[in-house]
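Narrative summary of target 7.
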Amino acid sequence: MSHEHNHNHTLTSLNRAFTVGITVNLLFVVAEFAAGLYTQSMGLLSDAGHNLSDVASLMLAMLAFRLAKVRPSRKYTYGYKKSTILVSLLNAVILLVAVGVIVAESVEKFLRPQPVEGGVIVAVAGVGVLINAFTAWLFMKDRKRDLNIKSACLHMVADALVSAGVVVSGVIIIYTGWYFIDPVIGLLVAAVIVYSTWSLLQDSIRLSLDGVPKDIDRNEIEALVRSIPEVEDIHHLHIWALSTTETALTAHVVVSDTSRMEAVKSRIKYLLRDHAVSHVTLEFETGETDCPDGCV
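Modeled conformation, tokenized:
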């Protein structure tokens, strides 16, 4: 009962974090975009574009978070758990598209620099640092539970750093009049986005293709099963992600004593649970069983 209470409390907390994060960031995007148009600052406009993509990412992550709780049906026997992986991949793509737009606009601005108001840039970007840091804090404690929550947290931390860079550019412009610094900051923003997104893109593609999750060592899992005295061999081992938080495994296990199959099954599932593998399907065989497809 206590576990159920804590689980429900976590879901409520995350739902509130998404709602607050989306609302606050959306309001800031509108204000930053207006300030960017008023000052003709590429730094502010590119940061606003990046923050808008993060709002979209937060909304998609929230949608996936809710879809993952939908009960399985006859057509969707795992429910919509896989949506969390598809959303993390879509989020990575959205960020890379935003990078392309920022780079194009920054290069154009660099070739044709225009005066911008450093004071407005400093004020608006300074607010951005606070908002992004606050949003990152909302997801900080749950970032290790889910790839989408981790990506939301990382994006907000990166945004806080990016906004800090825009503040620096505004200060430089105020004291030096070097307007070319503005598009340079836009290019640095793009570099930060690519750096922070690359691992998310790799992880999302791997999970979308039913690859072994990054935190799971296939060789270690195989050795773990082989360590059980009754197990002679294991083959047809497949490990993949059902969602960004749940991992499945299927395998053929060769045992020396078929009368011990249930005990062996329980032991394997117990050991795998400690390695974050929650859905396990096993087929037991004896040493005399043929393996027509090749035992791999």
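The two ends are 42 Å apart (CA to CA).
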